[in-house]
Give the backbone structure.
Amino acid sequence: MKRRTKVVLGVLGLAVVLAGVGVVRSKADGSADGTTKTVSVTRGQIVEKALAVGTIEPRVEISVKSQISGVVGRLYADVGDLVRAGDPLLEVKPNPTPLELADARRQVELRHIELDNLKRDITRQSSLKQQGLVSEREYELTQQRYAESQVQLTMAQERLGLLEEGKVNVATDRIETVVRSPITGFILEKTVQIGDPVVPLTTYQEGTVLMTMAEMKDLLFRGTVDEIDVGKLHEGMPVTIKIGAIPEAKIEGILSKISLKAKKQESATVFPVEISLVEMHGSQLRAGYSANADIIIAKQDSALMIPERLVTFAGDSATVTVLLPDGRTEKRTIKTGLSDALNVEVVSGLRDGEKVVEPPPREIK
């Protein structure tokens, strides 16, 4: 009886041990016990791209300035208006000081006196020349001074007329205080109001910016790309642009310019780029919109791919853990291709439909 009990207990003990070994083996082999998470190898489109951050801007933006000084007397156009080349924008009224006006009038009087004196000299020298008392050379010099005095009188009269009336004719050109549009385009910004002083544009000073204008049909994206990506770029690459203010907009462009010189931006090294907009699909864009541009470096339409988080990279090698049909797991070396930072292309080492084991989450210590 005791011997039979020992035999039964021995058999039960052996069964328990074998069961334990089976459980351990099952877990070690990564069998489907409900705890192993896998991801299937699939096919799909994968796009490698570089991100550019910037704004939508007009290709050409013009600053409108005046060639005469004064104050803004009248506005003919406002921000947002479409104006044609030659249309009036605003009027700059001369605002001379009493001393400047008195000096301009005095200059006209002085030129008149000088001209009258030279006119009498010519009459007297003409009589003396006939008597042989004045040389031909001296007579010609007096005539030359008379002609120069006539020009100086005209200039003094033009300056006085501009100060008093705000307009004057110079030869065939008409100088007036109305500033006209240099291009056909929209007014983006108005920087002066009625009564504001205006400093003229000259060789020695930049002058007051009165308005800024641009042709809004010719827009582009100006932004920057991180130095890590710029080596992969070349002009002519296709670009998709996302506008923060209008997320539904679909904007397509072409990379048209890459700066040869980097610049520092918040402790990062970036390269300025320009992207020409080629298709806006009816979207109404405005200057100054912030935008992100995805520059397409490479694209594969039917690529074998897996999430990049499943791949372990060590030097030049890449490995994954594959769940085999019999429940065992296998560590396998693969060759990767394109990556979009989420998914990575598998060039070799895996087949469509195979299951790759998801690594367990890292423990936070």
